[in-house]
Amino acid sequence: MRWTRVGMGIWLVLAVVLSACGGGGGGAAGPGGLVLEMGDLYFKPNTLTAKPGQTLQITLDNRGSLEHNFVLYDADGQTVLFEKDAIQPGQKVNISLKAPEKAGTYQYVCTVPGHKEGGMVGTLTVQP
User: Fold this and answer.
1) Does domain 24-126 have CATH number 2.60.40.420?
2) Of 27, 108, 21, which Cα lies nearest the Cα of 71?
3) 96 within 8 A of 55, measured Cβ to Cβ
4) Helix (H, G, I), strand (E, B), or coil: what is residue 11?
5) What pLDDT is recorded for position 33?
6) Domains of the chain: which residue ranges?
């Protein structure tokens, strides 16, 4: 099969888009980092994956009309592992987050009153 420049360009764009989607809606941290969109009562993606101890470069992008924050809890759901306060509407904040060393499922939430209860919850899965 002979490829034209246009055909190769289409496949290249498609490959980049699909890799950015992280497969089934989850985000896997790559060397260039990832963007975690924060809207009014949602995180997108709401699932992330990482290897134990991996450093994640994440841009928190508040696209909503409300202030949000980002809090990652230990598997017990009580102990705060990471917290970034007060991300204003329209603001982008870069964070560097070290994934827990222990494989498991960890929850991240927005703790602004009513936001977690409204569905602003995500899951970080740490697996070897």
Assistant:
1) yes
2) 108
3) yes
4) helix
5) 83
6) 24-126
